[in-house]
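Late entry, evening session. Most of the bench is empty. Finally got around to the prediction I had been postponing all week. Sequence below, unchanged from the version circulated by S.P.
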Amino acid sequence: MKRRTLFITGLALCLALLALPSGHTAAAETKFEISYPAALDGGPITGRVFVIVSKTDRTEPRLQAGSYNASVPFYGLDVNALKPGEGAVIDAGVLGYPVESLSQLPAGEYFVQALLNVYTQVRRKDGHVIWVHMDQWEGQHWNRSPGSLVSEVQRVQLDPAKGFNVKLNLTQKLPPVVVPPDTAWVKRVKIQSKLLTEFWGHPMYLGATLLLPKGYEQNASQQYPAIYVQGHFGLGAPFGFTTQAPPMVEAVETAEQRKARLNRSARESGYEFAQAWMADDFPRMVAVTFQHPTPYYDDSYAVNSANNGPYGDALLTELIPYLEKNFRLRAEPQARVLTGGSTGGWEALALQVFHPKFFNGTWVLYPDPVDFRRYQMSNVYEDDNAFEVPAGDWGKLIRPLSRNADGQVTLTMREMSRLEEVLGSKIRSGQQIAAWDAAYGPVGKDGYPRPIWDRLTGKIDREVALYMRDNGYDLRYNLEKNWAKLGPDLVGKIHVYCGDMDNYYLNLAVYQLEEFLTAAVNPKAEAVFEYGRPM
């Protein structure tokens, strides 16, 4: 019996060893377990949990993660009805960015932190019931959104080869946003939108920050024209206006030093702008920025959208009339002009195109793609993949997303898409590609935006591309198709400025827009296009 037992035991051991892949040992367990106490939140919570891993604690790890320009490793996982005390596990199988898996982290000392981004269930007017992160006036910044649960920073030794199991307890909620106080020059408003609240089945808000002209209070009967400055969510004053002098001011700055600084920054400081704005000879107007974050991005793109709702209508029929009534703005087209750069550049053009009689001109700076044949570096009507470019019969080249002034690629579309997939499933990353999907694209069967390409493979969905075009979001196509109707109200109103080597290749779509508007007749567009050199 004893020999038989030993034989069976030995045979089982041999079989177990043979079952292991040749040359490999069993993988060590690498995971983080994240939980929260009932004293912090009664739960359950649906949302997305993150673990952030950093080599430094100069700032909290959560504040070092999530940017496509620079990010420490972080990993994200959806949680559904997570109860207090229940653990959410992030292990080597959870996708991360820029290091794809915990198993790929180099062994060493790290500072780690967990965060739980809380979602809200909404029942939309279109019948869909979905879970989304409702902006808390932070501009869809997952790592500093009020109400998010965060852990203390832990200093740990991690070695994927040996394995680890780190428990992180979420111990605090991030506090509400502190809105800057009004001043004599800068005023802020926030109103609930009836249209958007009805669409989302949840209270939705619009805001504005206004920069008042000199003499506004002293001339109580005076009405003013408005310049609507489009761009990302922010609570700062329009044009960066500030009366706080920077360390080096014009009084001690030589002409050569100022020229060098402006070359570096490509713009004057907010303090310099303020000196001009407050001068006696500066034209009197009110500068306005909007706050219109959505559950998908820090900004709605200022248009009506199947996914976002009627933001275009809400801005024009609710927010602007409120501002005109309460801040003595002239309520007439001649007194409304637009400007903005990047996202704001696209919005400044779109608002003028979609509402040609409402605004009296737009000054568009380096706009997001205005022709989807140049959707960054993809032609979404013809290309099959957003990540790769065919090179002959056998080769493939990587499609870039951004570059520096020397032409060096700084980010690829594949990397950006993976970042967004880590930040949020179902187009809930709060990042750029998700913003376009939500603003321009159709609603998917599950109620979330249907993506224009798969975030992991890059395969382009042609139906989505054509939906975007046919619903007017390809602005060049929209103008060309509808020029006979739109043209008479747009003559002389479009002014576009862009670098000829834009960091995000935005100049390529601008060239296509210029080609059409230059050739347009009946009427002639009289549009202005100017390009700058990077170096």
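Two things to note before I forget:
The chain has a mean pLDDT of 93.
The longest strand covers residues 108-118.
Will write this up properly tomorrow.
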